[in-house]
């Protein structure tokens, strides 16, 4: 009897153990399913599910131009050490870029604006292509088209603003264009809203995070590229000197910093760019100040460079002819007192004749030497974040277009802010453009108000 009970209890115990093991297996399986579901919920696309999620390394996807050179040039320089080979390639293509820059300047404002637009589009392409490589969105061509749609919409808005501001007198003579100009901002907003709606409609399950990330990437690229190119265009309309001198300063600083760093550089400047040295930074800064001062002196003597671009009612066309403003006329300046005593001892004059713009050029050169390089450091940090050497391979020895214009965009913003803060005043041309948008009775009211004011100040003889 007792033996039978022991057998039965043993069988029951074995059954319980089997059940516990089965329950444990089921629990373990359930936990694995839960963890698997959690992992799947965190995966944003099929690319990530296939194990491609990890640290971003785009070195094999983005073409690089730093070590690239034409075949014939490669053959000629094959016996040189890598350091000197790179120096020669960079030097040759720097000279070619400078030559192209001078040709564009000779072509005038229109050639400069077209070049700015081409550079803007290429820079946007390089940045947005990195975004596509980072977020690896495949099979969504509609979304790629949306990025370019936003670029066109942004250009329509910003360049339209420029046309309204500088060509308003001409545009107001055409009824069709007058309507487009009057509602320019509303049309621009409607175009943007259309792109916004298309973006929402293009959202695809399992790609939400990447699509929103690339949407933000696109808008940051537009902010950096389109806004800055718009400011460059505004600087050009203020006078070619406001474009040529700052751009030349950045070029000079970049070249001289490279030369000083190549021959004398020993002390690292910043970890983001290990090849940058204090010797190059300081040497490039001094060279830029001297270069900017001399170049400003030369260009101030030519109305072609200093006159703003305006529409002439008398000539019936856009013109760059004017009476140079006080900024571009020689002015006598008294030297500081501590120098006057020394100069008097040797019978030297204590005054000096300078163009006021030359003093403003000191501010521009200091910014391009001290703050301008940080645009390049920012770009270096961006490239290091994604493990790429260059933005592209358009320019052998240099990289992509963005690699050459990373500092230019920052400089363009400073110049525009500097002009609006210390230089610019509303011209009769711009005021007339605003007046022409008033209703006829408002224009007549303004005319009588201005007439009465001039008569009361004895500037205008009262009519009998």
UniProtKB/TrEMBL annotation:
Membrane topology value: Multi-pass membrane protein
Composition skew (Basic and acidic residues), residue ranges: 18-55
Pfam families, sorted: CTP_transf_1
GO biological process, alphabetically ordered: CDP-diacylglycerol biosynthetic process
PANTHER family for this protein: PHOSPHATIDATE CYTIDYLYLTRANSFERASE, PHOSPHATIDATE CYTIDYLYLTRANSFERASE, PHOTORECEPTOR-SPECIFIC
GO cellular component, one term: endoplasmic reticulum membrane
Pathway in which this enzyme or protein is active: Phospholipid metabolism; CDP-diacylglycerol biosynthesis; CDP-diacylglycerol from sn-glycerol 3-phosphate: step 3/3; Lipid metabolism
Protein name (Swiss-Prot/TrEMBL): Phosphatidate cytidylyltransferase
Family matches, as InterPro entries: PC_trans, PC_Trfase_euk
Leading EC class: transferase
Keywords: Lipid biosynthesis, Lipid metabolism, Membrane, Nucleotidyltransferase, Phospholipid biosynthesis, Phospholipid metabolism, Transferase, Transmembrane, Transmembrane helix
Localization annotation: Membrane
EC code(s) of this entry: 2.7.7.41
Keyword set includes Transmembrane helix: yes
Domain of life: Eukaryota
Entry keyword annotation includes Iron-sulfur: no
Catalytic activity line of the entry: a 1,2-diacyl-sn-glycero-3-phosphate + CTP + H(+) = a CDP-1,2-diacyl-sn-glycerol + diphosphate
Region feature Disordered, mapped onto this chain: 1-61
GO MF terms held by the record: phosphatidate cytidylyltransferase activity
Transmembrane residue ranges: 87-106, 147-171, 183-202, 214-233, 239-265, 277-298, 357-379
Family of this protein: Belongs to the CDS family.
Protein source organism: Phaedon cochleariae (Mustard beetle)
């Amino acid at each position: 009897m007792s033996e039978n009970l022991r057998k039965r209890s043993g069988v029951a115990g074995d059954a319980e153990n089997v059940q516990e093991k089965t329950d444990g297996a089921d629990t373990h399986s359930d936990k694995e399913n839960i963890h698997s579901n959690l992992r799947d919920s965190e995966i944003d696309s099929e690319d990530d599910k296939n194990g491609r999620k990890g640290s971003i390394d785009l070195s094999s996807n983005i073409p690089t131009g730093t070590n690239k050179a034409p075949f014939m040039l490669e053959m000629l320089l094959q016996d040189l050490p890598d350091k000197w080979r790179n120096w020669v390639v960079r030097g040759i293509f720097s000279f070619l870029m400078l030559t192209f820059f001078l040709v564009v300047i000779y072509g005038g404002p229109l050639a400069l604006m077209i070049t700015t637009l081409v550079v803007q589009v290429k820079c946007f392409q390089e940045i947005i292509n990195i975004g596509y490589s980072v977020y690896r969105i495949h099979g969504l061509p509609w979304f790629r088209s949306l990025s370019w749609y936003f670029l066109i919409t942004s250009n329509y808005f910003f360049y339209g603003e420029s046309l309204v501001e500088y060509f308003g007198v001409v545009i107001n003579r055409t009824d069709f264009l007058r309507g487009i100009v009057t509602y320019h901002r509303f049309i621009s907003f409607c175009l943007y809203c259309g792109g916004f709606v298309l973006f929402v409609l293009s959202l695809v399950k399992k790609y939400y995070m990447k699509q929103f990330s690339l949407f933000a990437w696109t808008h940051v690229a537009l902010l950096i590229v389109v806004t800055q190119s718009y400011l460059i265009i505004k600087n050009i309309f203020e006078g070619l000197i406001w474009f040529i001198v700052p751009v030349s300063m950045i070029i000079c600083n970049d070249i001289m910093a490279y030369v000083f760093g190549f021959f004398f550089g020993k002390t690292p400047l910043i970890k983001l760019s290990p090849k940058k040295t204090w010797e190059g930074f300081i040497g490039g800064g001094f060279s830029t100040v001297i270069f900017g001062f001399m170049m400003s002196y030369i260009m101030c003597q030519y109305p072609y460079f200093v006159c703003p671009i305006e529409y002439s009612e008398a000539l019936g066309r856009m013109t760059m002819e004017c009476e140079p403003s006080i900024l571009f006329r020689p002015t006598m300046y008294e030297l500081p007192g501590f120098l006057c005593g020394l100069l008097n001892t040797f019978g030297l004059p204590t005054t000096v004749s300078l163009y006021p713009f030359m003093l403003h050029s000191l501010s521009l050169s200091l910014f391009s030497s001290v703050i301008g390089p940080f645009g390049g450091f920012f770009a270096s940090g961006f490239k290091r974040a994604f493990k790429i050497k260059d933005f592209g391979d358009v320019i052998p020895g240099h990289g992509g277009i963005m690699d050459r214009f990373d500092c230019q965009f920052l400089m363009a913003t400073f110049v525009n802010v500097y002009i609006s803060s210390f230089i610019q005043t509303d011209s009769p041309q711009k005021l007339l453009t605003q007046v022409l948008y008033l209703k006829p009775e408002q224009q007549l009211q303004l005319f009588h108000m201005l007439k009465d004011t001039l008569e009361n100040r004895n500037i205008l003889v009262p009519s009998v």
